[in-house]
């Protein structure tokens, strides 16, 4: 494709490119067009790069292009220059390349296309990093610095003049410039100066804020490349060997590097949001292809800090190979996301431009009428031209962009008082349309820390008596040995740091932890990075040396350590991780027969279960041999030693926030990396899922091709038919009453996304729990919901959520780390109580924006109609009349209308979001009709007076002679402007009435000024304003009464008819019968028409070979990975798909403890293990009390049925204030300062 001239765009990564080269003829004609249009055409070319390229250049093949037109996935065009660089010696040919969004693309002579510059570590084997320990030569350094660039994250801060030019290229500012020129030509010098001053302030403020933000970002991210040491010395380039002194305090990393010697613990909180130290180990010396995401445990990331390091052997330094520098690093990727964010697709601003265009077209009619009237009345050529151009200045308010900016600024200030920081003010309005709120679980809905409920030892393949306190176990107990050694804890400044699970587990043992001595420990004969010892007591102290750690990996869901007891000759292997994974690695004879039933019992109650295993290695195996063993060899044939049962408490703010959102008809969804059953239970505990609502698990698998059929997608809908009623169980009613929701894991989600997007849309439309979701899956979910027509809020703690937070319409980070800059909003309060006020502020801002816009165009068209009436007799308002109207009446509401506090209730209906919708247009045009009618009545009433004197026109005179008609019309324009501000000011149900004190003060002032202009008859004042007062004050009173009556009528019309009856009663009923506009509305209509879907516990088969043309090529063995999830959630996995085939008919498990309360903090029944209730472990058999006659179906490997446990659901344990009935149909969410919530 690269060789064809004028061919279709070539796709590179996620965007399209076209090649162009200079065409002299087009270039000459384009320059001539710029001269003819006095440079105004350049404004269009600034906004439309594709038109600019077409005018100045000729399309050609990429091979010969000197300019590249890039169109990204958002439809935004970029113009890039093609240049040449030489990589290597002088004999090497130069390489053509261009840079887009800080990423370099180079020309590939084989494919004749531009490709992204490959990373240094791309397609490299792990062992290759160990092959060049001596560093690079100077020639290699120069070549790589030319190829990859300097190790700088350079952020260019544009000079002030360019920022000003960019700002004033906005069409509204250009229109304002047009207004100033026209007014100056008509000698409206005073009013023109006012417009110039306001425009200068608005542009200056915007430029100052932009430059300030860019300067702060530049200062924060730009670092010197010479601040670290490399083997050869000098600047950093990929392939260099980085030497790190572990004795230095908090050594920062300014590049991405692969660790090859030594181990260390790093602080990644400022980059990923992960609050615990991360252990890094050397990359193995094998021929496995290096993968950046898979091998992150070996990578020192740019933007992180060294907490603790341990060099290899007697070395002084840790060593790492630099693989990425500058914008190619992880931090560089984050900065690129800030510099080039996803464009805000806000319909309001799109409609704003469309409305402006339509009104300009309407203004052409006014121009024609103006030319006609001034011509027939004998106006001069200058008057005819200027007044015809002047009529367009009434159509669009030039200060509207600044007014809308002020509205969001007020909201931003109010959010700051609620400890919510906004990085992009435009997203505030998007929050007003949110109809789905997605939440991460751990650290968001629940506490970050986790509590240890107890442990259940396993001996001889049988569950033993539960242990409430690990410290009571003997020192030789295998379960105690695992909990004291198998963790990733480190000690920094005498402070124990690590994952919450590891800390809770180790603290429960009451053992001591210490860093090992440098070099070889004489007590063990090998290096001992970490030591753990039993507490000092009467018994002999026991010490273990932790010799080697295999860190937790999300892909294998386990971690392992090799340890040795002091004085022993043999070594021990200890492992912990996901129960189903550990069971498969252990000797089958050590796994209890009812193992999976017990696991399901706990996970179904929201508990997090960790399996523990251990083994003793043969004493003849030496440490040298162990070091050469692979991880799989070390972890083979372990013995299952027990289960740890953990509980994760809900935050106290979670339930009230979820209840308010549900009452406001905002759908709540959980998106977590945790286990599916645990997530469903937590969703029920926090009332995200109603207790009576059926939860159907969607399981998707690929059935490979065989002799019985082609490869196909199998979709299974599993539902548990058992629920509690008064302590007993009964079979629930038919699922197809519509009261159900879906749950699914990340693997099923990704399979549907790739192979059956249509079915995926149906599933996520009803799905409330997404579990085992990798970071990229979360982002895909947000995009899928947006594609369906939803406006989505995403709340996460910043770790693993950056992509989803950045993609969502309202991304809220609960972390203050650098990673939070990916989200538009950051809450200092680390709980979801921030969601409700943020959505409320969004609705207030959106409603205020509508009010500001309607007020702006209302006063413009009132002036437009009034001026056209005056043009019929060839007169115009004076300069001082414009000053009074602008400064005393119209300009202040522009900037203060948004200073309204949000309402105390979150209304179930979202505010209007489209300017071109029926209700806003109907409201505006009817208001204009009533005001025009009032002015026409006053016009003819004035002319009907016996003392009326017709206007005498004098060509060329400025200001014109005063007349009665112009005086009356001006007074009614003032009254109409006040009425417009009152009618369109934000009010209930999204704003608090009378909360805008500045607006109330302005209203009083505007009424006083209007009355003064109407009733002051002082000759100097009258001449200054160019008024002609009537001889009888009764006439003025009639004009005032006429204006007041029209205002009252317009207020009642807007308040009670449009915002009352039409908006709250008629319009919802019209929406029910009209055709659905959004995809989610169409899906809902389709599901209601198919009451037999889904088919419970039945299988849907989709032939993938028939769908391959739609979804593209795929491998029969589709790789589904969970990505990198450095989160403690991942180790407690229990996937129902991993259950064995269990025959549970007439066999149920009696378990009286570990009952979680509905609140989720587990402070109700069963906070601790009751040893008296575990005398019968291993679990005994019993018969459940089942009400319905149909027998309970067997559990099979693909079902998600609950076991029939004889459990009584605990009572709801919520504070009493949460259950106070409200007189309003929605829940109050204020009283944050007074409530204990």
UniProtKB/TrEMBL annotation:
UniProt membrane topology term: Multi-pass membrane protein
Q: What is its main location?
A: membrane
Q: Look up keyword Nucleotide-binding and say if it applies.
A: yes
Q: Which family does it belong to?
A: Belongs to the cation transport ATPase (P-type) (TC 3.A.3) family. Type V subfamily.
GO MF terms listed in the record are:
ATP binding; ATP hydrolysis activity; ATPase-coupled monoatomic cation transmembrane transporter activity; metal ion binding; P-type transmembrane transporter activity; polyamine transmembrane transporter activity
**Species the sequence originates in:** Daphnia galeata
One GO BP: intracellular calcium ion homeostasis
**Class of enzymatic activity (EC top level):** translocase
Domain Cation-transporting P-type ATPase N-terminal as annotated: residue spans: 131-180
Annotated catalysed reactions? ATP + H2O = ADP + phosphate + H(+)
Protein's name according to its UniProt entry: Cation-transporting ATPase
Record field: transmembrane: 27-47, 194-210, 352-371, 391-411, 853-874, 880-897, 918-941, 968-986, 998-1016, 1036-1053
Q: Cite the P-type ATPase A domain residue spans from the record.
A: 218-338
Q: Which PROSITE patterns does the UniProt record give? A: ATPASE_E1_E2
Stored Pfam families: Cation_ATPase, Cation_ATPase_N, E1-E2_ATPase, P5-ATPase
Can you name a GO cellular component term?
membrane
InterPro entries (UniProt xref): ATPase_P-typ_cation-transptr_N (IPR004014), ATPase_P-typ_cyto_dom_N (IPR023299), ATPase_P-typ_P_site (IPR018303), ATPase_P-typ_TM_dom_sf (IPR023298), ATPase_P-typ_transduc_dom_A_sf (IPR008250), ATPase_P-type_domA (IPR059000), HAD-like_sf (IPR036412), HAD_sf (IPR023214)
- Localization terms from the record: Membrane
Question: Does the record carry Translocase as a key word?
Answer: yes
- Keywords, A to Z? ATP-binding, Magnesium, Membrane, Metal-binding, Nucleotide-binding, Phosphoprotein, Translocase, Transmembrane, Transmembrane helix
Domain P5B-type ATPase N-terminal as annotated: residue spans:
13-91
PANTHER family (UniProt xref): CATION-TRANSPORTING ATPASE, CATION-TRANSPORTING ATPASE-RELATED
Q: What is its EC number?
A: 7.2.2.-
Q: Where is this region: Disordered?
A: 1185-1205
């Amino acid at each position: 494709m690269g060789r064809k001239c004028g061919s279709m765009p070539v796709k590179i990564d996620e965007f399209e490119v076209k090649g162009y080269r200079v065409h002299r003829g087009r270039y000459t004609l384009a320059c001539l067009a710029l001269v003819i249009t006095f440079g105004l055409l350049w404004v269009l070319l600034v906004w439309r790069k594709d038109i600019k390229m077409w005018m100045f250049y000729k399309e050609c093949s990429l091979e010969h292009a000197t300019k590249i037109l890039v169109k990204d996935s958002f439809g935004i065009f970029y113009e890039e220059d093609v240049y040449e660089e030489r990589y290597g010696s002088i004999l090497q040919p130069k390489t053509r390349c261009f840079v887009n969004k800080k990423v370099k693309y180079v020309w590939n002579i084989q494919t004749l296309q531009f490709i992204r510059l490959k990373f240094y570590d791309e397609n490299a084997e792990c062992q290759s990093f160990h092959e060049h320990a001596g560093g690079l030569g100077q020639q290699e350094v120069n070549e790589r610095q030319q190829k990859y660039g300097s190790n700088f994250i350079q952020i260019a801060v544009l000079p002030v003049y360019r920022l000003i030019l960019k700002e004033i290229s906005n069409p509204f500012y250009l229109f304002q410039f047009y207004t100033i020129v026209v007014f100056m030509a008509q000698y409206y010098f005073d009013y023109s100066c006012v417009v110039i001053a306001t425009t200068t302030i608005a542009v200056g403020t915007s430029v100052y804020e932009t430059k300030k933000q860019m300067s702060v970002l530049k200062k924060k991210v730009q670092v010197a490349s010479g601040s670290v040491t490399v083997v050869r010395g000098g600047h950093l380039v990929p392939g260099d060997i980085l030497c790190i002194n572990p004795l230095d305090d908090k050594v920062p990393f300014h590049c991405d590097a692969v660790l090859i010697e030594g181990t260390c613990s790093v602080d990644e909180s400022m980059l990923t949001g992960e609050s615990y130290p991360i252990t890094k180990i050397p990359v193995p010396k094998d021929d496995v292809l290096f993968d950046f995401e898979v091998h992150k445990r070996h990578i020192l990331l740019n933007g992180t800090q060294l907490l603790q390091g341990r060099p290899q052997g007697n070395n002084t330094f840790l060593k790492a190979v630099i693989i990425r520098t500058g914008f190619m690093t992880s931090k560089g990727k984050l900065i690129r996301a800030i510099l080039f964010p996803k464009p805000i697709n806000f319909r309001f601003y799109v409609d704003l431009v469309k409305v402006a265009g339509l009104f300009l077209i309407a203004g052409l009619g006014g121009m024609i009428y103006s030319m006609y009237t001034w011509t027939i009345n004998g106006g001069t050529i200058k008057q005819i031209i200027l007044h015809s151009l002047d009529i367009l200045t009434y159509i669009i308010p030039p200060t509207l962009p600044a007014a809308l900016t002020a509205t969001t600024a007020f909201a931003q200030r109010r959010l700051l008082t609620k400890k919510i920081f906004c990085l992009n003010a435009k997203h505030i309005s998007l929050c007003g349309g949110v109809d789905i709120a997605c939440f991460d679980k751990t650290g968001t809905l629940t506490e970050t820390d986790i509590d240890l409920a107890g442990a259940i030892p396993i001996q001889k393949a049988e569950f033993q008596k539960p242990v409430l306190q690990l410290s009571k176990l003997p020192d030789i107990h295998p379960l105690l040995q695992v909990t004291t050694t198998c963790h990733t804890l480190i000690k920094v400044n005498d402070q124990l740091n690590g994952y919450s699970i590891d800390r809770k587990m180790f603290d429960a043992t009451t053992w001591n932890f210490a860093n090992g001595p440098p070099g070889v420990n004489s007590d063990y004969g090998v290096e001992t990075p970490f030591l753990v010892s039993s507490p000092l007591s009467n018994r002999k102290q026991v010490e273990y040396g932790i010799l080697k750690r295999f860190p937790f990996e999300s892909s294998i869901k386990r971690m392992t350590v090799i340890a040795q007891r002091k004085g022993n000759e043999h070594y021990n292997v200890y492992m912990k991780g996901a129960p189903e994974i550990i069971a498969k690695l252990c000797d089958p004879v050590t796994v209890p027969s009812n193992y999976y039933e017990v696991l399901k019992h706990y996970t179904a109650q929201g508990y997090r279960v960790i399996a523990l295993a251990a083994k003793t290695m043969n004493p003849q195996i030496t440490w040298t041999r162990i070091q050469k063993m692979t991880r799989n060899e070390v972890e083979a044939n372990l013995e299952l030693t027990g289960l740890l049962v953990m509980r994760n408490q809900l935050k106290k703010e979670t339930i009230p926030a979820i209840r308010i959102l549900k009452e406001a008809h905002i759908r709540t969804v959980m998106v977590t990396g945790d286990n599916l059953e645990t997530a469903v239970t937590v969703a029920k505990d926090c009332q995200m899922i109603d207790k009576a609502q059926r939860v159907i698990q969607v399981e998707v698998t690929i059935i490979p091709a065989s002799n019985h059929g082609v490869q196909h997608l199998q979709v299974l809908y599993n539902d548990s038919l058992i629920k509690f009623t008064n302590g007993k169980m009964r079979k629930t009613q038919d699922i197809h009453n519509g009261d159900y929701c879906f749950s699914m894991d990340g693997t099923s989600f990704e399979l549907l996304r790739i192979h059956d997007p249509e079915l995926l849309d149906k599933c996520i439309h009803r799905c409330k729990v997404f579990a085992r979701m990798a970071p990229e899956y979360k982002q895909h979910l947000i995009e899928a919901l947006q594609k369906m027509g939803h406006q989505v809020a995403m709340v996460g703690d910043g770790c693993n959520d950056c992509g989803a937070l950045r993609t969502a319409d309202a991304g809220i980070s609960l972390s203050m780390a650098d990673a939070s800059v990916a989200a538009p909003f950051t809450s200092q309060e680390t709980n979801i109580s921030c969601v409700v006020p943020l959505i409320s502020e969004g609705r207030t801002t959106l409603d205020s924006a509508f009010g500001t816009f309607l007020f702006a165009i209302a006063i413009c068209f009132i002036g437009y109609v009034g001026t056209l009436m005056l043009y019929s007799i060839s007169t115009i308002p004076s300069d001082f009349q414009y000053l009074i109207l602008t400064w005393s009446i119209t300009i202040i509401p522009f900037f203060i209308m948004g200073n309204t506090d949000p309402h105390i209730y979150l209304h179930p209906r979202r505010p209007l979001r489209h300017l071109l919708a029926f209700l806003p247009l109907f409201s505006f045009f009817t208001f204009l009709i009533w005001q025009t009618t009032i002015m026409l009545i006053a016009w003819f009433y004035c002319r009907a007076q016996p003392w009326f004197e017709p206007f005498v026109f004098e060509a060329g005179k400025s200001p014109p002679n005063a007349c009665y008609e112009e005086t009356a019309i001006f007074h009614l324009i003032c009254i109409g402007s006040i009425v417009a501000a009152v009618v369109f000011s934000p009010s209930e149900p999204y704003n608090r009435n009378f909360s805008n004190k500045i607006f109330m003060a302005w209203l009083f002032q505007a009424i006083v000024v209007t009355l003064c202009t109407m009733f002051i008859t002082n000759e100097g004042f009258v001449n200054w304003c160019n008024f002609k007062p009537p001889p009888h004050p009764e006439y003025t009173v009639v004009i005032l009464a006429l204006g007041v009556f029209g205002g009252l009528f317009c207020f009642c019309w807007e308040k009670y008819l449009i915002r009352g009856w039409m908006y709250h009663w008629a319009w919802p009923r019209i929406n029910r019968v009209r055709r659905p506009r959004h995809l989610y509305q169409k899906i809902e209509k389709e599901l209601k028409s198919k009451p037999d879907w889904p088919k419970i516990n039945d299988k849907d088969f989709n032939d993938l070979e028939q769908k391959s043309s739609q979804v593209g090529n795929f491998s029969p063995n589709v790789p589904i990975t969970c990505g990198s999830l450095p989160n403690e959630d991942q180790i407690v996995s229990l996937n129902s798909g991993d259950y064995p085939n269990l025959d549970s008919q007439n066999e149920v498990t009696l378990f009286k403890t570990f009952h979680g309360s509905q609140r989720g903090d587990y402070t109700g029944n069963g906070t601790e293990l009751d040893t008296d209730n575990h005398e019968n472990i291993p679990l005994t058999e019993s018969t459940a009390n089942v009400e319905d006659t149909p027998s309970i179906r067997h559990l099979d490997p693909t079902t998600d049925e609950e076991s029939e446990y004889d459990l009584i659901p605990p009572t709801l344990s919520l504070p009493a204030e949460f259950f106070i009935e409200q007189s309003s149909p929605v829940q109050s969410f204020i009283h944050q300062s007074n409530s204990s919530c």
